[in-house]
Write a structure and sequence with these properties.
Length: 98
């Protein structure tokens, strides 16, 4: 079971708590997590990735075990800590401004 932590505005949109659990079919990658998340919560389609290109939206970041995977390939295999559920996959809104 994969654990995913969503930012507040996406939790509100999906009407979920702090964390959601996902079952994956296949290898755990950023793409497979996002595919499963959008399948379970269709209202999130287009909020994390572009509808057409499926590229990450510019102000969204992905963190895994303290590491920013936002610019990594969507096919990057995820660490065992994510796969076994001991660590969550974080989706965060980037902070901008100055």
């Amino acid at each position: 079971m994969i654990r995913v932590v969503l930012p507040h505005h996406l939790r509100t949109l999906a009407r979920v708590g702090d964390e959601v659990s996902l079952e994956l079919n296949g290898s755990p990658t950023v793409r497979s997590i996002l595919d499963a998340l959008e399948a379970k919560y269709p209202m999130l389609q287009g909020t994390i990735r572009d509808h057409g290109t499926l590229k990450r939206r510019p102000m969204v970041r992905f963190f895994v075990c303290g590491e920013d995977l936002s610019h990594a390939s969507p096919e990057t295999p995820l660490p065992e800590a994510i796969v076994n559920g001991s660590e969550p996959f974080f989706i965060m809104g980037a902070i901008a401004g100055g």
